[in-house]
Amino acid sequence: MKYEQECKKIIELIGGKKNIVSLVHCATRLRFSLENPGKAKKEEIEKLPFVLSVVNSGGQYQIVIGSAVPDYFATLQQLMGLTDSSARVKKGKLSLDSIFEIVSGAFSPLIPAMAGSGMIKAVLIVLVQFNLLSESSSTYAVLSAASNAIFYFLPIFLGITLAKKMGGNMYVGGTIGAALLEPSFTGLIGQGQTDFIGIPLEAVSYATTIFPIFIAMAIYVYVDKILKRIIFKDIQLFAVPMFALMIMVPLTTVLFGPFGTDVGNALASGVTWLIASSKLISGFVLGGGMTFMVMFGLHWGFTPITLDNLSNLGGDPIEGMAVAAVFAQIGIAIGFFFKAKKHSKMRALAGPTALTGLLAGVTEPIVYGIILRYKRLLPIVAISGGIGGAICGVSNVTMNAYVFHNIFSIPVYTPTLGYLAGILSALISGALLTYYFGVKQEEMIDFYPENQKSIGGEGGVETSETVVYSPVNGIVISLERVEDDVFSSGIAGKGVAVIPEEGKIVAPFDGTVVVAFPSKHAIGLRSTTGSECLIHVGIDTVNLQGKYFDMLVSAGDEVKQGQTILTFDKEKILDEGYKLTTPVIITDAESIERISYKETNGNITPKSILFSIGE
């Protein structure tokens, strides 16, 4: 066990296991309730090299450890034969930010697989175009499987990532997605009237779709919690997932899936009417809106109409306009590629995804890996796609064969000049709008090489500093004014404190959650440059044991500056008699040569810089 010898020494000097009534921890301290505090040997404990201080206050014997306190706590729990009964319940109000956080968190782990698969598809298209590989060969079949798998089985992968993000069992979530693609279910497709226990069932293909599984996972996490409340713990191992699957799979096939299909069909009918009314407006709507329909799998409602148009009319105007959306997305990737610096994460992502879109027409990595991460790109993809779609519409562009939209499919569109004018307008406007307006300055951490971040005025300046913004609206004070010796003395780390004016904590920089404390009153973060920061809401608020707090992230989650990570009920905490002074400290300050304080007094917001760190 980690820290086993150190923890054995703590138990010995504090009076042994029998002297320990209970144990909790906060952001920096082990908090013991002792049967007889007089048995604890304070002076000897303070001499231990890993102990920063000992405080006996509020009926608790507090041993200050620092940022490693969760590891010490876990080891002490094991040595004393205890289990951590406190579990983090992930809750939050439904908002646009929370929806984007869920969507981004669901797709982020899949980006490497999607980008790699898209590149394989692009290579295959090039090989076929130059007659270096036949589409009928077994080699093509194997490589095609490698390129299609992540997209075909997307409901499974999203079931896993969404369940993990929203607090359910990730493998049960994946199983719900897999049930939609299992041969027993897919065998029902095309069989006419089918039912589930007498309820009409419309079996359709859910391969590559995301809308049904998103709805299913949003409902599943609540079903999972309810089942855990009402089922005996002794049988929860098998009973909870069993009933969850028995409830969610039928609900998805009977309700959620058909609902998405009906919405898609309704959109298709509406667009058909719009095309007959105005090709300019319909082109703008299709080019600007197709990206959003693809996100939720609603674009499949157009497929039957497209195929019918190709069969009866020889060409389809719907895809002739919607193609602009693909090139608007490619333009966005190109814009970010040129905006990002060499050796940055964004250039490494934007370059291959733009190439995949151009060569293969596969833009999911752009949509889910780039567009959904930066909210400014949503209006940009709508505007640039709308411009290109409108040009294609008034030019009467049609797609004359069912193909992926890429540079190799130019011959299947007529008239060629109208098509080229439309897609180039979408691509160029998308690239320019993205380059100049696509990202906020404080969101550009991935646009610079490792250990560099853009700060300062318009355009930014490259620097090796870590910039720590305020995590909350409030009044900043010096750390020395905090009414807690551990913080005011600087033992726990260097920094400042903020007196909050609202009950919301946001990430002070781009980075990763190191520890989300079960008591929810504090959170530890690590910046992309390696600095570790602790945000501790209130003084002694650990005693509330999570009451009035909601932790919105968990250890290992990536966060962006300004993203809400914790909420609390300010008034109720104050009514309980606790102070809400919130220290914001760098816990690894001994490894840092310089901390420059930007603001030391007055009102601040999450756009205010508290301090910067240089090494």
Task: Describe this protein's structure.
The strands form seven sheets. An eight-stranded antiparallel beta sheet has the order 19-15-16-17-21-13-12-23, with no helix packed on it. The radius of gyration is 28 Å and the shape is elongated. The protein has 20 helices and 24 strands. With 615 residues, it is α+β, with helices and mostly antiparallel strands. 46% of the residues lie in helices and 17% in strands.
The computed structural class is alpha+beta
> What is the general shape?
elongated
Extract low-pLDDT stretches: 83-93, 451-463
Please, how many helices?
A: 20
CATH C-level category of one domain: Mainly Beta
| Largest sheet strand order | 19-15-16-17-21-13-12-23
Considering the protein shown, what is the CATH homologous superfamily of one domain?
A: Glucose Permease (Domain IIA)
CATH topology of one domain: Glucose Permease (Domain IIA)
Q: Which architecture name of one domain does CATH use? A: Distorted Sandwich
How would you sum up the major sheet?
A: 8 strands, antiparallel
Kindly state the number of beta strands.
24
Radius of gyration: 28 Å
- Kindly estimate the percentage of residues that lie in beta strands according to DSSP: 15-25%
Fraction of helical residues: 40-55%
Q: Report how far the terminal alpha carbons are from each other.
A: 33 Å
Q: Output mean pLDDT.
A: 82
